[in-house]
Amino acid sequence: MSTIIDLANTVFQPLINLGAAPLMTIVLTLIALLFKVKFTKALEGGLKLGIALTGIGAIINILSTSFADAMQSFVERTGLSLNITDVGWAPLATITWGSPYTLYFLLIMVIVNIVMLVLNRTNTLDVDIFDIWHLSIVGLFAIFCGANLFIATALVIFIGVLKIINSDLMKPTFNDLLNAPDTNPMTTTHMNYMMNPIIMVFDKIFDKLFPWLDKYDFDAAKLNSKIGFWGSKFAIGIYLGIFVGMLAGQTPTQIFALAFTAATCLELFSMIGAWFIAAVEPLSQGITDFASNKLKGRTLNIGLDWPFIAGRAEIWAAANVLAPIMLLEAMILPGNKLLPLGGIIAMGVTPALLVVTRGKLIRMIVIGAIELPVFLWSGTLMAPFITETAKKVGAFPKGLSADALISHTTMEGPVEKFLAYLVGNASQGEITFVLYAALALVAYLLIFVWYAREMKKRNAAYAAEKAQ
């Protein structure tokens, strides 16, 4: 096993050290070349993807920082005492990539993906290798809780296979949300979409009990077409910035600064979302030609990072509304010790809500508010592991006291973190944890199977609609 780990680090470490944008530029360019795309077009697509990733990261940083400051002001006004600091996703990625096991898990999942493609168990080639850290941290946490490497690897493969299957299930919905043709190759294996099954449970409850709420839904695009700029993305940013600023007790100057920052970010998200589409156009044509000539028309998709869907205003409108809701829940939630700051803009929550509800904003907000406690409890549970690991790899934030705990409020895959905790402790042989872990894994698989069946029904409806 150590030989495999060393091999994975030798192969992938130089690439990972480049950073996400250069890495994905190289990966997309090389894949396009493999599909016989002209070099200049392949490079153009790769560079556009790198630019899009850089842009989306910069905008997320601006938005998160601005709202975190407002939330900090709110905390100071109320005198909250939550002793785990939310540092956001970046330190967690650093911590995870500081482990040699992460590149080992990457190698394992590359092999798994190839096997699934060869056996025709998926149509998705996952190229978003940087975000393997979301899956790796599950395996690392299982090891921290007592699992050996073999058990942790089995858990990573189990979840990883479902992630890849999920990317195929979501593909027609992405086409619908982007108004893209079937030849569009973009999908994603990102961990945040593994909340889809749980979200769908609540979405079905909505269908049964509260369908009448949909007629009051706030659709930014439709509202904009009816009443002009009042329903535009930047107007939504203005409204929400003012609301959060007032909640934080900011001065008029600060409130307007926050409002205009939010408005700018929502507009830029839409623009950058279009860059992702432009980036994969050359590859899309190459895949179409390859599938026609070599695969007898078989569809082949490319798994990217989630922000190619970031142009949908509902993601950010829901995230901004959920920000103060999450803070209020954190204040009263039993067992929570985590103060929402770095993750106050809930990117780990809202993309999955968008896919399952297909942009029904009221549902996104209500279901999001229901599921936020799972994220807060997960972040609280992982704080000792994250803090200890951060100190080992030198990623503990400066300015915090040595005895402080750190974590992340909206870390993708909260349910998977609980699975890692149960599996890790069950590995020690305690019968209670063995029973809980077995039940949790069975329940996790069964709800995914049910979700897959529902998504196949949805996809069949899409196909029937297009056939008319």
Automatic annotation (TrEMBL):
Highest taxon listed in the record's lineage: Bacteria
A GO molecular function held by the record: galactitol transmembrane transporter activity
Give the GO cellular component terms, alphabetically: plasma membrane
What InterPro entries does the record point to? EIIC-GAT, PTS_EIIC_2, PTS_sugar-sp_permease
Protein localization? Cell membrane
- State the membrane topology: Multi-pass membrane protein
- Which keywords fit this entry according to its UniProt record? Cell membrane, Membrane, Phosphotransferase system, Sugar transport, Transmembrane, Transmembrane helix, Transport
Q: Please give the biological process terms from Gene Ontology that the record holds.
A: phosphoenolpyruvate-dependent sugar phosphotransferase system
**Where is it predominantly found?**
membrane
Query: What residue stretches are annotated with the PTS EIIC type-2 domain?
Result: 12-450
Q: Where are the transmembrane segments?
A: 15-35, 47-68, 101-120, 132-165, 227-248, 255-278, 338-357, 364-386, 433-452
Q: Which PROSITE patterns does the entry mention? A: PTS_EIIC_TYPE_2
UniProt keyword annotation of Membrane present = yes
PANTHER family of this UniProt entry?
A: PTS SYSTEM GALACTITOL-SPECIFIC EIIC COMPONENT
Kindly provide the name given to this protein in its UniProt entry: PTS system transporter subunit IIC
